[in-house]
Amino acid sequence: MSVYARLGGTFSAWMATGHPRFPREGLAARFADHPDGIYRQLAVRDPTAGPDLIERLNHDPDVWTRQAATRDPRLPLPRLLETLALPEPASSAAANPALPPAEMAVVMDEAGVPA
Of 16, 33, 78, 80, which has the fewest CB atoms closer than 10 Å, so is most exposed? Predict the structure, then answer.
């Protein structure tokens, strides 16, 4: 956490979150309402964060927090499908592993990927 805090929103800070010893549990309780979006992103990494919190963070004013929440498979399906139609989060929504195969096929067709 101290590395992440010191590095702020840099690529190196993002890399630190992938380290196996980076804390995950408790991040939602600690950072979901933090005034800095860099920290609110961490709430998405908490395995105990529920779908309601992920959806709330999907509407966050910070673009990186919104995108992190959009990629999360806990984002409720109706909201995930809504984000596919929005320009800014569409690519993050298309990368969400919870996107149903039929919707993924539509995304692939619209992108011109051959079947």
Answer: 78
Q: Which residues make Cβ contacts (< 8 Å) with residue 17, sequence separation at least 6?
A: 4, 42, 45
Angstrom distance (rounded) from CA 82 to CA 47:
24
Nearest in space to 42 (alpha carbons), one of 63, 25, 55: 25
Extract the tokens encoding 39: 């920290």
Please state the pTM of the whole predicted model: 0.85
Give, as one character, the DSSP assignment of residue 72. -
- The tally of CA atoms less than 13 A away on the side-chain side of residue 23 is 13
Contact 71, 80 (CB under 8 A): no
- List, for residues 41-91, the tens digit of each pLDDT value: 999 999 999 999 999 999 999 998 999 999 999 999 999 999 998 988 889
The beta strands (E) that lie in 4-101 are given as none
